[in-house]
Specification:
single chain; alpha+beta
C-alpha cells in the first residue's frame, strides 16, 4: 500500500515537472484553436496526441473543458485581443493572449520563413528577431497576424556517414528544440501555416515525417492538408501548395504534376478567387541562381502559366538557403517570385554571375525571415535578420528595401 502510494506520488511529481507548450493552431475573425502538449516523446502533442488529462481553458469570461490536447473556441469578436489560460489538474500550463482577425480589412501583416527547423544558434537568433518584430508591431493598426512557411520545417540530424540521418521529425521529441522551443513566445499568439519541403517527408528523410507534420500543425479549415487555401479580411487569398514528392506510402512521387489532383484544385481555386491579392507559397523555387539547388522552372512551368493567367503578382518559396527574388517579365509571367530559405539553414556561396541567366534581380546570403505588409494594392517585403540585411543586385550594387509589389498591372 505504501509502495503504491509512493509510486503514485512520483508519477504525479513527474507529470508536474514536464514542460508544456501552448500554441495557437488556427485563428479567424470569431474563432481560435488552442493546442498544448509536452513534445517529449511519441505523439505527446498535436491533433491525435494522447490526452494529458482534462484541461480547463479560461477565455472571454468562460471556462471551457477539453479532454483533447486542443480546443476550438467560437463566438469571439473580430479584431479583438483576448487573454487565455490553460490548466490541467489545477496546474496552469500556459497563459497568454491573441488577437482575432479582422472580418474585413484593407491591410494585413505577416511573416514568411523557410528552411528553418535545425535547432541551430542561427535559427534561435532569427526566432528571437521574429518575436521582437511581432512585439514591436503588436499595438499598431497592422499587427502580425500569422506566419507562412516555405517548407523544410523540421530537419533531421546528420550524425555521420555510418548512422545517417536521425531525429528527422518523425517523433514529437524531434520538434521540441526545432519548433516549440525557439518559437514558443510567438506561437502562443499567432499560428504557423506551413507548406511541405523535401525534408518534411520521404523525398529526403523519413516517410513518417509527413504524418507528424500533418498532426502537429493545425490548418485553415481545421483539417490536415498537404495543400489548402485561406482568406484574410476579404483582401488576400493565400494558397499553401505542395511542390514535393513526399508520400505516405510507396516511393516518392511528384504532387505537382499538371494532370494531378492538386493542380486541378489549384485551377479551380485560383479561378474562383475574387480577392485583390492571390498569394501562393510553397517550397521549390521556380527561379533560382543557386548556389546549390537547380531551379524548378521546367517542372513548375504550368504553375507559372496558371499564376499569370489568374492574376497572381507574387509567390513565396524556399529550398535555396538565402534570400532571392526574380525579375518581373515575360519569363516570370509577370509574377515576382521571392525565395526565403534561410530561417535556420544558410548557404553563403556567391551567385551574382548566375543571376541574369536565372532571371534573378536581387539576393542576400544571410539568415533571415520576411516581414510582409499589405495595404490596399501595395505589398512591401522586408528581409529581417539578427543584424541588418544587405541586399545586392546582379552587379553587386545595394538594393533598397522593402521590395514593393503591386496588385494592379
Amino acid at each position: 500500500m505504501v509502495r503504491a502510494s509512493l509510486l503514485a506520488l512520483l508519477l504525479t511529481a513527474s507529470a508536474w515537472a514536464q514542460k508544456y507548450y501552448v500554441y495557437v493552431g488556427n485563428l479567424g475573425p470569431d474563432t481560435v484553436l488552442l493546442a498544448w502538449g509536452t513534445a517529449d516523446g511519441k505523439n505527446t502533442i498535436g491533433r491525435s496526441s494522447a490526452s494529458r488529462g482534462e484541461a480547463t481553458v479560461k477565455i472571454a469570461g468562460r471556462s471551457l473543458v477539453s479532454r483533447q490536447n486542443w480546443i476550438v473556441v467560437a463566438d469571439l469578436k473580430p479584431d479583438t485581443p483576448y487573454d487565455y489560460e490553460i490548466s490541467i489538474g489545477g496546474r496552469s500550463i500556459g497563459k497568454n493572449g491573441f488577437r482575432t482577425w479582422a472580418q474585413r480589412s484593407s491591410k494585413v501583416a505577416f511573416f514568411v520563413i523557410g528552411d528553418w527547423g535545425n535547432a541551430s544558434r542561427e535559427q534561435y537568433a532569427i526566432a528571437k528577431a521574429m518575436l521582437q518584430e511581432f512585439e514591436k508591431r503588436s499595438g499598431s493598426d497592422n499587427p502580425v497576424r500569422f506566419v507562412l512557411t516555405t517548407g523544410d520545417n523540421i530537419y533531421g540530424d546528420v550524425n555521420n556517414f555510418v548512422f545517417g540521418v536521425k531525429n528527422t521529425g518523425n517523433e514529437d521529441s524531434d520538434w521540441a528544440s526545432k519548433f516549440f522551443e525557439p518559437y514558443q513566445g510567438l506561437i502562443a499568439h499567432v499560428p504557423f501555416f506551413p507548406s511541405l519541403g523535401n525534408h518534411d517527408g520521404n523525398e529526403s528523410e523519413s516517410r513518417r515525417d509527413l504524418a507528424v507534420y500533418l498532426d502537429n500543425f493545425f490548418f485553415p479549415g481545421d483539417e490536415a492538408a498537404r495543400y489548402y487555401r485561406f482568406n484574410y479580411g476579404g483582401l488576400v487569398d493565400f494558397f499553401g501548395l505542395d511542390s514535393t514528392t513526399n508520400t505516405e506510402s510507396g516511393p516518392p512521387r511528384p504532387a505537382y504534376f499538371e494532370d494531378g489532383r492538386q493542380f486541378a484544385w489549384m485551377k479551380a481555386a485560383l479561378a474562383e478567387s475574387k480577392a485583390a491579392w492571390k498569394v501562393p507559397y510553397y517550397h521549390h523555387a521556380v527561379f533560382n541562381a543557386g548556389p546549390r539547388h537547380a531551379p524548378s522552372e521546367r517542372e513548375l512551368k504550368h504553375w507559372v502559366q496558371l499564376f499569370s493567367q489568374t492574376g497572381v503578382k507574387v509567390a513565396f518559396n524556399g529550398h535555396e538557403h538565402n534570400f532571392q527574388y526574380s525579375e518581373v517579365n515575360q519569363r516570370s509571367g509577370g509574377v515576382r517570385f521571392v525565395t526565403s530559405g534561410a530561417g535556420g539553414e544558410l548557404r553563403a556561396g556567391g551567385i551574382q554571375n548566375k543571376m541574369s541567366g536565372a532571371n534573378m534581380a536581387g539576393w542576400a546570403p544571410e539568415n533571415h525571415f520576411l516581414l510582409v505588409e499589405i495595404e490596399g494594392d501595395v505589398m512591401k517585403i522586408t528581409p529581417i535578420g539578427a543584424a541588418p540585411i544587405k541586399v545586392l543586385d546582379a552587379s553587386g550594387q545595394p538594393v533598397k528595401m522593402p521590395l514593393e509589389v503591386r496588385a494592379t498591372k
